[in-house]
Amino acid sequence: MSAAEVSAQRTNRKLAWKLVLVSVFFAGFGFAMVPLYDVICRITGINGRTNTAPAVLNASTQIDRTRWVTVEFLSHTMPGVGLEFAPEQFSMRVHPGEIVHTTYTVKNWTSEAFVGQAVPSVTPAVAASYLEKIECFCFNQQTFQAGESRTMPVVFVVNPDLGRDLGTLTLSYTFFEAPKAPV
């Protein structure tokens, strides 16, 4: 084998090792992205995440009757889950600080029980921390028997500290099937 061939083999081996290292790095980085993204979202408040436990109302909160905020409601289910999921109303005008009651309805069209979790989000994302849920079906997993229909409450308040430039918030829920427990 000539010196040029040996040099080419050495160069190819180095390149192969570099490609393996880059592949391993990015595979690890891909697995680390989910927890990193979650931490960044919690710190910065982006991604429209709302409270995951009942909010405690401050007894001294005053209703701001000088302005209105429109709250829009959306609902989604993952394809193939067999649920019909919809808000009672698609929007309402509320005063910041006012306790608001609304409901969502769910119908399980399948012949099997469905166990799922509703995941809320608020847009614009900067408003997520100002929409405080007091009672919500999203706090716990829900079980729907075959053919069952249910009306589920959501009680919330728009914090009066919400900036005056935000006149519309959208509260959206997506129903996911809960992971099945190992048998």
Shape: elongated
Average of per-residue pLDDT values: 84
How many structural domains does the protein architecture include? 2
Q: Give the tally of β-strands.
A: 9
Estimate percent helicity: 10-25%
**Share of residues in strands:** 35-45%
Q: Can you say what the CATH homologous superfamily of the largest domain is?
A: Ctag/Cox11
- CATH-derived topology of the largest domain: Ctag/Cox11 (Pfam 04442)
Q: State the strand order across the main sheet.
A: 3-1-9-5-7
SS class: alpha+beta
CATH class descriptor name of the largest domain:
Mainly Beta
The secondary-structure element order is: HEEEEEEEEE
SS field, number of helical segments: 1
Please give the largest β-sheet.
Answer: 5 strands, mixed
- CATH architect. name of the largest domain: Sandwich
Q: Give the terminus-to-terminus CA distance.
A: 60 Å
Low-confidence stretches: none
Can you give a write-up of this model?
This protein has 183 residues and is an alpha+beta fold. It folds into two domains: 1-44; 49-177, Ctag/Cox11 (Pfam 04442). It has one helix and nine strands; from the N terminus they run αβββββββββ. The strands form two sheets. A five-stranded mixed β-sheet has the order 3-1-9-5-7, with no helix packed on it. The chain has a four-stranded antiparallel β-sheet with strand order 2-4-8-6, with no helix packed on it. The termini are far apart. The relative contact order is 0.21.
